Fold these 2 entries.
Entry 1:
Amino acid sequence: METLSASGTSIDPVAIRADFPILAREVGGRRLVYLDSAASSQHPRMVLDAMDNYYETTHANVHRGVYAMAEEADRLYENARTSVGRFIHAPDPAREVLFTKNATESLNLVAYSWGRHNLQRGDIVVLSEMEHHANLVPWLALAEERGIQLRFLGIDDAYRLDLTGIEDIVAGAKIVSLTLMSNVLGTMPPFADIARLAHAAGAVVMADGAQFVPHLPTDVGALGCDFLAFSGHKMLGPTGIGVLWGRRDLLEDMPPFLGGGGMIRDVRLDGFVPSELPWKFEAGTPPIAEAIGLAAALEYLEAIGMEAIGAHQRSLTSYAQQLLNDRFGGDLKIMGPAGVDDRGGVLSIAYRDIHPHDLAQVLDQSGVCIRAGHHCAKPLMRHLGVTATARASFYLYNDESDVDALADALAEAGNLFW
Amino acid sequence: MSGLEDLYREIILDHYRSPRNRGELPSPPAERVEAFNPLCGDEVVVYLQVDDGVLSDIRISGQGCSISQSSASLMSAAVKGKPVNEVRDLIKTFKSMMSIHESHLGTGAGGEDRDGTASQDGEDRGGTEDEGVLIDPEAMGELAALQGVVKFPVRIKCATLSWNALAQGLDEAASAGDVGTTD
């Protein structure tokens, strides 16, 4: 199967799959059908090789050594920062791109450092009801600690953000922090429009890009965000590395998040002076190999082209919506926006009244990996009136045969339970 | 599909589709215990009425997967009307069954690749014998249908959810003075 992107470049998932060693394995004698990339994506050989090569030839701690090999490690690590900056069109990558453990830590960094530095009792923070726990809990903790007020954008019947009265909601807000793509619904809010309103109201704007950045061209300027958080392991990179991009003036003004080695200019027994950006926010030995692996992943994605990857995702999502609807009709509900204009390749499915865990268990027997659970979005689950959903998600190595396998496995589950 | 058939036995599906003792009891006087499985959102509420050392009535509400809901239904049918001491023994026996190593079940249904993982963890084996409870699936009646769950470790918590709630309910009933003896 080939998908043609708007720019004319095409994706060949079969050829792409050959680059991913894990996708050659079988589960119970069946081909692995991996439909859980929204939880964590797989790795092309070149990412694994980049990390192996680093460990085999160049490993040394960064920012400390004067010997040649340590300098090489340092250069690889800082080059990874530049790659990340280029990938998201950051104006000043060398200063503004911070490496963290994951998107969760990036969001926490902002809540703890920027939040504790800038928010007082009664200050308003605007979130939405479709946020991942990573963009809820740090703010809930801050609300408990210092009495900030949280306001939430709701969700309409079409699974989109309800923007009714948004001017009033963002009025007086200090920060607006929203997902770029819901990990449950696939919904992509009109982020740039919301950011404009938020800025007009004087708020700082943060984007949770964990689901968006792996799948679509990302430009922090076009999005209009002041902070952007995302994870390496959802975009072909290793676990243990995340990114926080922040506007330089905001980062300069923020106190350090974690204290320790690497993040200081001077330490005395009566105080310390933090280092400059970006190291001020990178206490301790950073995930060096992981940064190098992430840079390799970005290189792989860029070679294929983010436009083409985005187009492939839309094409596959559209195919899945149509196939599941044709085959199961009213027995199956997709909890997410119709169409593909403002949604990603994340399909939360309710099939008859089979519990998502039973569904995932039965699908596993067909080698089909989907995720069942609350997807770290319990307030959203409550809004949807469910305790869990079964979620299939797509990436560049998936194609129509994977969607067909999903549909066949769903039919088998139906036979077992009815 | 053999492993799956062990998990979703007909008795289990029957109790899932037509749960027994579904509903609520006025509380008080009944004990009401909620149990959640935070991993998957399963939720079971157990209502129990203890009179003169006998579990005279039990009702189940809540929602969740087939394993959590059928286990609760099977449990309610097995314990209703039984003396509390017998119920406690049954809880112990059931929980032992859920922690026993699958190769000790003697069902001959040892999974291909799951064997390797499980044989590394000898703790479960020891745990079963520590309890001093001998598992005789024959004596467990319909509850034995749930033993296939052991092959799917992530689902064990689903099966034991309602049993933990029942144990807690009995403790609460005992401390409330309704029951004279506890083990």
Note: Chain A has 15 helices and 20 strands.
Entry 2:
Amino acid sequence: MQKLLWSVIFVFIAFFTYGQGNVTLSGNLKDEETGEDLIGARVVVAELPGVGALTNDYGFYSLSIAPGTYTVTIKSLGYESVTLEMDLSTDKTYDLEMTVEGKVFGTVTVTGEKLDENITSAEMGVDKINMKDIENIPVLFGEKDILKTLQLLPGVKSAGEGSAGFFVRGGSADQNLILLDEAPVYNASHLLGFFSVFNSDALKDVKLYKGGAPAEFGGRLSSVMDIKMKEGNSKRLSVSGGLGLISSKLTIEAPIVKDKGSFIVSARRTYADIFLRLSKDERAQNSILYFYDLNAKANYRLGKKDRIFLSGYFGRDNFGFADQFGFDWGNATGTFRWNHLYGDRLFGNTSVIFSNYNYKIKFGAGEETFQIGSEIQDINIKEDFDFFINSKNTMSFGGNIIHHTFRPGEIETGSDIGFTLNDIENRYSLESAAYISNEQKIKKRWKVVYGLRYSNFTQIGPGNIFSYDLAGNVTDTTAFDDWEPVSSYHGLSPRLSTNFSIDEKSSLKASYARTYQYIHLVSNSTASSPTDIWVPSSNNIEPQVADQVSVGYFRNFYDNMLEFSVEIYYKDMRRVIDYRDGAEVTLNPAVEGELLYGIGRAYGLELLLKKRRGKFTGWVSYTLSRSERKFDDINDGAWYAARQDRTHDISIVGMYNFTDRITASATWVYYTGNAVTFPSGKYSIDGQIVNLYSERNGYRMPDYHRLDLGVTLDNKKFKTVLDAESGKEVQVEKRFESSWNFSVYNAYGRENAYSISFQENAETGQTEAVQLALFKIIPSISYNFKF
Amino acid sequence: MRILIFFIIILSFQVVSSCEKVIDLPLNDAEATLVVEAVMKGCVGANYVLLSKSRSVYEGQNFEKIEDATVTVTDEGGVVFDFPHQGNGLYRLPNFSVEPSTQYDIEVNALGRVVTATCLSPSKPKIDSLTYLTLTGVFGVPEGDTLNLISFHSVDNGAEKNYYLVKIFRNGEENSGYYLGNDDFINGIYYEAQFFGSEAEPRDTVFVEMISMDQANYNYYVGLSNNINSGPFSAAPANPPSNLNGNALGFFGAYSTDTISIILP
């Protein structure tokens, strides 16, 4: 490995020297109307085919080429391209504010990113969602949701109704790293999974890496979901909002100093509890049930070379019953970032990141109370650099260190309870990583991104650390001091992805990635629950490791109007976690003794056909896959289907623009039912009927399918005024925009099984299989506005 | 917790819609297996071994009883106790009683197989007292109605790891729910626990039985409650972890108990 590392460094040094003697064109690209940074915009040079630069996450680009006069074109997702002659005899800075495409009166242009991006980029196993699509796709209660929309893409599977959890390429829900402005979000669901914590009004860009994530990312086995919040309008005050069936939201954005800094504040609250008051049931009337969240971000440009960002999220669910019982949970995240340009080719970013997830359950009123809580908290310091070496190489490198605090169980009692209870001890650990990665154009048609990530995880004191025997019983306890290392793990993760363009229309891609996961979600339930807790790798729990290879073929048809891709993957997982039969994981100080370790494998085929342009847009995605697990103590040591093993998974999404004011949409999903364990016998113990189980996940839930429909009606976007000079009638854009959205969830009323239980019929005493379906047809309406 | 979350789900979505229906779901039939329920306590007359057979899910509930087995219990001193069949699969030795902190072995000979198990009885637990809190107009009790919330007071034995099962009886009838807990949060201290959901009316007689058991039996009861209360928020369903050796379902428990009762005014 040492040798490999040296050769990598050597290669980089070679690029450094090669990079000398060139001139550099650099700058920032922004949206003309809002001042938002443009991510992934391209700067290309007509005279040098295959040479170009992409803007990074902060809208910065840098391109080093030989001195000369060039025709430079700047292009971006849904914006008018700009072409200009440039004399590049010396280094030059060129900033540009780009105009949204299709701002021509009375016409509609639906555009995407650079049309052949899917063919030319080395990225594979990446799902991206256009924020515009999210507005049109019908969803439950009309509540736009990026997590739910991403689940319509191949390889990403919904954990089912009542869960915002998702499975990526056969991995479990806790193997997804969900980042909001770099801060990990530990529990991404509201209302027990019916909604995600992400308010799409505050979001700018979402990207999901299903495999082959860049070396910058690590810490989870299966995927990285990278979500970026909007920066806020730096041109003028802008207000948008929506009134929905179960929630309302409001977003305010404005410049702090025009073109230098801006902020955005976005808030959302549900009012499901209002419906509860209408209920005839007295218990329901006395109940509290709502969630709210708040996103805020501010940025300020200190000078040509420095810019700072401060962003945060705070969200909470509240459930209660009169004043006797309360249950609330939520995430808080905060990110402070400082961008600095070291010269015109080296872009640096320093981040300080905070993340917290906790839940509290309170019983009793007044001083007669009893409260249980649990928490995970991270403080992360991160440094990232983008080095635009030359027109063929862009290097990224950096590192970070996270301090994790795990509070598995804190118990507080009111003064009238008369006794106190012991807490479960906190656990602490340090997780650090360093990475280096390079994107290189080897030949005109061949691009490679290669990188290496080193990570370390050290469990530290203070604490009384348990050891366990094979049966999970505590055998020994050792006391450790503050910061004293208890156990340590580390690993090297090579990452490689490559793209070979066969011709203008098609390409072949391949990727390999190794991933390590040092913290684990302990959840005894088959659905996600707010009381799930995270545990660190320790003297007893080793990190999970996975290797994934994938290959794909990408082809575009009809002048990039249709996109087609096929990818196959194989993922090998080691030291994945499951539980002993009858395990107790909530508030158990010896929870590590309840865990079992095994191996897993997942493989599949993903097909995607997408229509990008025209009045009709949408896609069809199909996944054929397997995901299996093997544990010595489960299923007699034989391979069994993981819960998320789904043979077939189909999503069809269609959107049709009737006029510039009416958009209709429909989605249809179908998937094989989850693997489940059903009894194969019964017996009587202690006067109760007990189910007898023989094999793990040996049965299937019924197949799931559902059709959703939606219509969005935009109010008139233009008004006719008399032009003062010419005296003619002209159309001008209205400042106030609004739209109505109508949707129907589960349009043909399919009763999809949420659970199946075996119960004795009260009259006949006969055991019956009883299926519970949560939703029939759910219509909803919402009104959105912006000015 | 599970029940709680399920309650939230139901509460949230009964408002919207949810529907239950009986479906036709073919299941495999496991081979009928011997079921051993062997309960030994520190009081005379409360000890029994019940032997039966499992059956298919969709069959009726009249489980076949095993009437021709031999059941013996041996204490750590080597004294052997024979449990004769008393009819209907029930094997009892009326005068037998469990001593605290003693190891017992059981041997069951039935259906052509030998099933054995070992269990160590814990020290005798002690219920300190029962108290009650009269509720009117709070905790969901309507104005004008009076209910009594029963509290239970005890001191945990700090010298050993304790696992408790507490049963509540009202006017001689066992409450459908029981309390299962260990001393993770109460090790060696005086504590109080409220029996929520077991509120009693005036002039009721409330009887509480506290059963102290070893870890294997506790794990069995936890597994049993997971098995019975399975739902969307429960663990992947599994058979409760049995302490029996040999091909059988069920458990062998040697328990130490304490009881107390209170008559409400």
Note: The first strand of chain B starts at residue 19 and ends at 23.
